[in-house]
Amino acid sequence: MINVIAVIIAIASVLASLAHVGYLALLNNAANKRAGGAPVAQYVRSRWALAGGTTAASLLAWLFTSGNAGMDILAIIVAAGSGAVATKALQSTQARYRSGG
After folding, report:
1. Is 58 contained in some domain?
2. What is the pLDDT of residues 55-71, one digit of tens each?
3. What is the pTM of this model?
4. Fewer CB within 10 Å of terminal CB in the chain, N or C?
């Protein structure tokens, strides 16, 4: 039962990390196509390390779920941490560049 929980948390963490990576990619693409987009592109470049780190940690946590119960607990801890960091980073990036519709 703990393995199922660990796998679900790890998958959610990977999805959160990939959402952050995808949002940064969209911002970077838009900034490169637009005149005056250099500050946004510079901000995106500064965030790639965080996005890559959380994605790597999430994937590592998912890999940990193939072990025993101790590894499942470690996977839950790593996945929850990296998922929380990725979600917070995505929210802060969205808040910074959200247009007032």
Report:
1. yes
2. 999 999 999 999 899 99
3. 0.89
4. C
